[in-house]
Design brief:
13 strands, 182 residues, mainly beta, Jelly Rolls, 6-stranded antiparallel beta sheet
Length: 182
């Protein structure tokens, strides 16, 4: 596995080793030892263990986010796509951070098999680029509805450059999320 820093300190791009032959391919999608070693080599802390795995399936144009949870249920997320493709976004919401309000986006797909580590302190969202996109993520804390928060996906101060798809499909809650800086 290759671990590469993104433009946001703490957010890491992970490229797994993929072994292909005439039968197809094989890859290790998660290995705790390699995950911890990869983060340590980048000078990053080891997160709490993963406690929950989640999956979603989305139509092209579905935009989910930007979501996060506050303490004591803040979550780190290891995200990947098993079918289709997304434009995945992390936004630094750590008020004291020098990169507060900055975002990083990357295409994750079943073809490129890239993953993204997003530590606690970041809002997260994605836009499905294909029908039947299956998105998977591991979290370092349990879902807690009372701790759930959102940032408006189209916050002008963030100026996220979402890919242009014909129509975005966004649920009511995400359409009315607050901006990061009121």
């Amino acid at each position: 596995m290759k671990f590469m820093p993104s433009t946001l300190p703490g957010v890491v791009i992970i490229e797994p080793d993929v072994y292909e032959d005439e039968r197809g391919w094989f890859m290790e999608s998660f290995n705790a030892r390699k995950f911890e070693d990869g983060l340590q080599q980048l000078g990053l802390p080891i997160p709490d263990p993963f406690v929950q795995d989640n999956q979603s399936c989305s139509r092209k144009g579905v935009l989910r986010g930007l979501h996060y949870q506050i303490e004591p249920f803040a979550q780190g997320k290891l995200v990947s796509v098993t079918q289709g493709a997304v434009f995945d976004v992390a936004v630094d919401i750590r008020v004291q951070s020098p990169t507060f309000g900055q975002w990083f986006g990357l295409e994750l797909s079943a073809d490129n098999k890239k993953m993204l580590w997003i530590p606690a302190g970041f809002a997260h969202g994605f836009l499905a680029l294909e029908d039947h996109t299956k998105f998977s993520y591991k979290t370092t804390n349990f879902y807690d509805q009372t701790s759930e928060r959102s940032v408006l996906w189209c916050d002008e101060d963030l100026a996220i450059e979402w890919p242009d798809v014909r129509d975005y499909i966004i649920n009511e809650k995400d359409q009315h999320a607050p901006v990061l800086r009121p």
